[in-house]
Backbone:
């Protein structure tokens, strides 16, 4: 059995000789895990997926899935993977059932087997009651589920999810996560997914790689990445004007103190629950009054901030910007 | 590992059929599309075919307003036997004779120019060519949507042979064109098209093969072009730009022999001329074996060259 299901080595894609969408990306995905590519729009996530699913050829570098080279053995790769694209690709003029059967035909699955699987999958994603309705009548969440079902019709060993909850509301998103987890249990797959939602990466992924400007910045499990930040973050304000950075720094477990512009202190410390009382004690014994205090465990947003120097929200940009970027990429891909 | 299907082999035919059926379903499931599909030729035939009644132009009724004097003097030298002075002929008699002479001229003029005595039959077959041309050009364009909606990428990530993706579009275009041609021909017969007495099953087969040939040529080239354009507007504009010239620089609505020389030379390379000629010979004209052979050879060459270019270009795009 292959340990590493996906191995990418220096994967690069350049559009139009100048636009470097993916820049020497290397990573490996272990059997049975959910591996996530986390990054803002335009970071190169979809281009990476398109190379792995054999739709685009890498300009440089190589990758393999279950030992099959994505360029030289593309057809073997295609047989063992399932793909759920970020767009709604189901044909609106066909019914949900017809759409799954169409996918099955593309994989050459015998009709009898396909029929059984289609019904089973529709049951799993709770669309059995809507199977004979045209997809144009489906809601966004239903379409997502149908896409999931289509991507699973060939019982893939590796499933690719490109932004699986893009454009869904918070509730539907959470429900979709449940479906993904359930389907993974049911079919024992390895999942490679991309997302620009931090919560999604946190909720689903065993390991993530943060990607920005086509490069992987850091890889690890969400826990590891958060822990690597050096523990919890304590924010404290005092009534007095004095600079107490030194006082706080001398408290046990404190690793870093930064005086912020608004006068508060941002403290990085291990074992935040234990350290906080110690800090308060130290300040009080020197006659300072603590007016405000917060203790937070680091989130992926902090991780993101740490490695890219910006918050995820800053990078999302305006809608127009996002569309402009997308159109540019599309044009580039089209050539 | 719960059931995996690496042993199931996707085949070209299976994939081709699945993708073609998808296209046809999209089209046949839509009542409005189907209505338009019958309405369009109906309107064209009704308006163009029946209003442009060229035969009537040469009928004797159009002589009524020609001024003929009551008495026409003829110099005695012109009559046999010769007489002195003038002979007078009654104008109404001249008028009657003219009407008698011209009562058949319309038919002969029409036959000499169009090969058939009624323009409606001539035009109705031209209609088939025109609709076949536009349908095949437009149907390749659906791939622009497939690409924009991500369907194409999804299909490309499955093991379906790449050829099936291309051929399904081409086949779909050809099937549509054949179906439309059938509908137009039936409607035309209903409206008074006179089929030649030798019309039989072989002719129908011939009609379908001629349409098939031109469809695969035209649709493959448009498919390749549509694949490369990110917006639907571009191929649409190209189609509307070239359909009119292709139509009028051919025998679709008017015979080539009546055209000025420069236009004739365009019409003679225009594949539409050969399609229309083949269709007319198979339906309304007496069949000329050597002429129809030339038509089919030309269509065959056109189909092979254009579909080869189209398929190679599409293939290169799909495996970029």
Residues:
């Amino acid at each position: 059995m292959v340990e590493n299901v996906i191995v990418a080595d220096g994967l690069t894609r350049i559009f139009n000789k100048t636009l470097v969408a993916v820049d020497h990306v290397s990573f490996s995905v272990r059997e049975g895990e959910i591996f996530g590519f986390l990054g803002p729009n335009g970071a190169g996530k979809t281009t990476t997926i398109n190379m792995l699913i054999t739709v685009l050829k890498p300009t440089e570098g190589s990758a393999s899935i279950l030992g099959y080279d994505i360029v030289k053995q593309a057809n073997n790769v295609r047989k063992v993977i399932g793909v759920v694209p970020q767009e709604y690709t189901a044909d609106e003029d066909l019914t949900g059932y017809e759409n799954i059967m169409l996918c099955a035909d593309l994989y050459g699955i015998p009709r009898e087997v396909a029929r059984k699987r289609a019904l089973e999958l529709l049951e799993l994603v709770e669309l059995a009651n809507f199977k004979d309705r045209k997809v144009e009548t489906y809601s966004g969440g239903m379409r997502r589920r149908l896409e999931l079902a289509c991507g699973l019709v060939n019982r893939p060993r590796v499933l690719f999810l490109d932004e699986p909850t893009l454009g869904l509301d918070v509730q539907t998103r959470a429900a979709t996560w449940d479906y993904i987890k359930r389907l993974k249990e049911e079919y024992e797959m390895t999942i490679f997914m991309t997302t620009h939602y931090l919560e999604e990466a946190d909720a689903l992924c065993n390991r993530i790689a943060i990607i920005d400007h086509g490069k992987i910045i850091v890889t690890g499990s969400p826990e590891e990445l958060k822990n690597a930040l050096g523990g919890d973050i304590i924010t404290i304000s005092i009534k007095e004007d004095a600079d107490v950075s030194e006082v706080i720094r001398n408290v046990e477990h404190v690793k870093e103190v930064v005086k912020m512009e608004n006068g508060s202190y941002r403290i990085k410390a291990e074992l935040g629950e234990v350290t906080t009382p110690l800090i308060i004690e130290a300040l009080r014994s020197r006659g300072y009054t603590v007016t405000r205090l917060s203790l937070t465990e680091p989130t992926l947003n902090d991780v993101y901030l740490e490695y890219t120097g910006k918050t995820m929200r800053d990078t999302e940009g305006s809608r127009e910007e996002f569309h402009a970027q997308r159109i540019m990429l599309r044009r580039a891909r089209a050539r | 590992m719960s059931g995996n299907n690496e042993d199931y082999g996707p085949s070209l035919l299976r994939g081709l059929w699945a993708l073609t059926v998808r296209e046809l379903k999209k089209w046949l499931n839509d009542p409005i599309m189907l209505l338009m599909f019958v309405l369009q030729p109906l309107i064209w035939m009704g308006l163009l075919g029946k209003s442009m009644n060229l035969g009537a132009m040469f009928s004797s009724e159009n002589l009524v307003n020609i001024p003929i004097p009551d008495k026409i003097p003829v110099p005695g030298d012109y009559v046999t036997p010769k007489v002195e002075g003038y002979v007078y002929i009654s104008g109404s008699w001249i008028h009657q004779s003219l009407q008698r002479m011209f009562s058949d001229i319309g038919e002969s003029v029409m036959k000499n120019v169009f090969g058939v005595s009624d323009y409606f039959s001539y035009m109705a077959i031209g209609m088939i060519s025109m609709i076949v041309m536009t349908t095949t050009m437009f149907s390749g364009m659906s791939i622009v949507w497939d690409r924009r909606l991500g369907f194409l990428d999804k299909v490309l990530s499955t093991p379906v042979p790449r050829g099936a993706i291309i051929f399904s579009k081409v086949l779909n275009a050809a099937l549509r064109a054949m179906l439309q041609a059938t509908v137009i021909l039936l409607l035309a017969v209903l409206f008074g098209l006179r089929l030649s007495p030798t019309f039989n099953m072989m002719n129908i087969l011939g009609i379908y093969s001629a349409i098939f040939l031109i469809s695969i040529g035209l649709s493959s080239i448009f498919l390749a072009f549509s694949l490369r354009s990110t917006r639907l507007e571009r191929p649409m504009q190209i189609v509307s730009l070239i359909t009119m010239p292709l139509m009028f620089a051919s025998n679709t609505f008017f015979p080539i022999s009546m055209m000025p020389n420069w236009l004739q030379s365009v019409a003679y390379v225009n594949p539409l001329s050969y399609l229309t000629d083949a269709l007319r010979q198979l339906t309304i004209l007496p069949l000329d074996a050597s002429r129809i052979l030339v038509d089919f050879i030309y269509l065959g060459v056109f189909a092979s060259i254009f579909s080869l270019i189209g398929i190679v270009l599409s293939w290169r795009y799909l495996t970029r």
User: Anything to note?
Assistant: Residues 1-5 of chain B have pLDDT under 50 and may be disordered. Residues 13-54+115-318 of chain B form one domain.
